[in-house]
UniProtKB/TrEMBL annotation:
GO terms for biological process: secondary metabolic process. One of its GO terms (cellular component) is cytoplasm. GO terms for molecular function: hydrolase activity. Residues 3-257 form the Serine hydrolase domain. Keywords: Hydrolase. This is Serine hydrolase FSH. The keyword Hydrolase applies. It comes from the Eukaryota. PANTHER family: ESTERASE OVCA2, SERINE HYDROLASE FSH DOMAIN-CONTAINING PROTEIN-RELATED. The keyword Hydrolase applies. InterPro entries: AB_hydrolase_fold, FSH-like_dom, LovG.
Amino acid sequence: MPCRILCLHGMGINSQIFASQTESFRSLLPSDYDFTFVDGPTACMPEVAIAKVYPGPYLCWYRTPTTESVTAAHRHVKSIMAEKGPFDAIMGFSQGAAVAVSMILRHQLETPSTPPLFKFAILIGSPLPFSHSLMYGIDTRDYFGVSCNVDCSVLARYNRPNKVPTYLITPDRYLKNDGDEDFHRTEEACQQPTAAIFYQMFHSTSDEVRMDIPTVHIFGRRDPWYLHSKDVLRLACAERASVLEHCYGHEVPRQLSEEICDLIESAFALVEI
């Protein structure tokens, strides 16, 4: 039975780099696994280590996860799915994994009686996902250095929490206080400077929704996103989640290719049951 997998790269890389990062375990899988790698829509700066090894372009799904940026990212991925799909599963690394999780959760919240967006998901080094809507997640504007620049009743009606567990506030590229207000906006939104800016981070303590599909979680104990990835696991269905916790950092661990293959094939087997 063929299995088509949509692949979303991390921030500051591109589809070809992600293909290279995952080639070692993909080469071990049966030929009926078909991986489709696609590019994010927005240019950004790469990590120094990436730029030394791989040529650009360096891309992302959004520069920062405001509700409007997340909405735009979802729209972009949906357009890819319409053009290149259908897909059985989704695989994401880093920011790409966060986008995948937020899309899966959104689909379940908005259309709970329909089939899942994907049959299973492979999540590598995933930070916590952000929501497209004020109805979900923790209000994290303060942690991004964004003041309440509109009537607070806009958000107050949803009664969302606004305190992030302190153990999650580490990577300055994610929860960032940036002096440039345009950093927080999509290109289109910059044309409407009075519009509000919101950051809504999904978290198991604030949201009851869980990914109701088999999920594979791969993350390293030396990864700055380690605690985020552990909390992403809490957004999954415990009975259908498989975990590979390794001793490396924020990377696709080539040394564990066989173990990754085993988890992917086990997740796919759950779909077929």
